[in-house]
Write a structure and sequence with these properties.
With about 150 residues, this protein is an alpha+beta fold. It contains 6 helices and 5 strands, in the order H-H-E-E-H-H-E-E-H-E-H.
Length: about 150
């Protein structure tokens, strides 16, 4: 059994720079906890729900506590009825995106460039009720069902 070859750190820096990735030290400096925004990811893989408007995946509890970080106009925080009407547990696949504004996957999924970094459903089953569509439209959100091909 041979030991894996060591790759010189200078090679990794070149690759990271070419593909827009940060070295570990750079990442740590850029992502120090400043008390500001943070990446939105589920804490556990139970009771996950996907937003029917943008596809963001979080735990049910996270939607109740924080609402949808992309669809803030809806005011889902602390409103179980709205959370249940605007999210669904019926989705398939997860995509993790750290830079939606530069991600080809974000474009493929038709996410807006200002979407928050986080986990998104590959496909979402279900649609908003007509009542919720009216509320979404009043909030200025252009709703396109995510369950369409």
């Amino acid at each position: 059994v041979r030991a894996p070859a060591k790759v010189p750190k200078s090679w990794l820096s070149g690759i990271n720079a070419e593909y827009g990735m940060a070295d570990d030290e750079d990442y740590d400096e850029q992502h120090q906890d400043d008390g500001g925004s943070h990446d939105i990811v589920p804490h556990r893989l139970i009771k996950l729900r996907a937003c029917l408007i943008c596809g963001l995946v979080k735990e049910y509890k996270q939607f109740i506590e924080d609402g949808c970080n992309n669809c803030t106009q809806l005011g889902l925080q602390n409103d179980t009825e709205k959370v249940e009407g605007c999210t669904t547990p019926n989705f398939t696949g997860l995509i993790a995106m750290m830079k939606p504004e530069r991600s080809w996957v974000a474009k493929w999924q038709r996410l807006k460039p200002n979407s928050v970094p986080g986990c998104y459903a590959v496909s979402v089953q279900g649609r908003l009720s007509q009542e919720m569509i009216n509320i979404v439209t009043e909030c200025g959100i252009d709703y396109h069902p995510l369950d369409q091909e």
